[in-house]
Amino acid sequence: MNVPGLMTVQPGQTALLDRLADMVGLCFLEERWHIAWLSALDVPPKRKLAITRAVIRSDYRATAPYGCVHALPDEAGAANAFLRSDLADTSWEDVQARSAALLQEELSEREREILNRQARKLEAASDTDWPARRIANGEDYLYFYSIGVDPAHRGTGAFNRLMTPFLLLADERGVRACLDCYSDRLEGLYGRYGFKVVERKSAPGIRLTERCMVREPGTPLPHRAEG
User: What is the SS3 assignment for 165?
Assistant: First the structure.
């Protein structure tokens, strides 16, 4: 997917993919699902950061062949996002499985055991397949798998510069945009761009709620929002 105003990072641009993964991995150290996931692991913060960066790097390497990794030209923000039609005959489940396999290679045996067990506990609030079930009849849709803005560029409008081109493209194509998040702050931020919660999912015994959010095409966009 080529998004006007953004770079679509190619699989061979490994140095750029790694830089973006390092930046977004830093952001995801604050993300609530990853906090809950990594809470099972008794390791220093530096190692947890290395793991979140490995998560994003594995995602990028699995999705870049389908044109799903996008970034601002100044690298202040990046999004792993795709139109369902970008995947052609490949299933999202297969792409996720490829990413998971790449991540396993970057973890120790002990880390794999603990984090895989914790992921199973969080499974009820870890659904990324819901757009395909909710948007049926072969309709295309835009799905944001991950979004991150360099902490050094927060408050500069980088988030708005990153999100707006995607949503203008969705409007042009007449497709719905989907994403999920885990905090009231992000729910409010995405709400300013027209996303509405259509379902909430919780993991038993864990204070974690996944918000599944959808934006209808043509919903007005803010002139500028924080981020």
Answer: helix
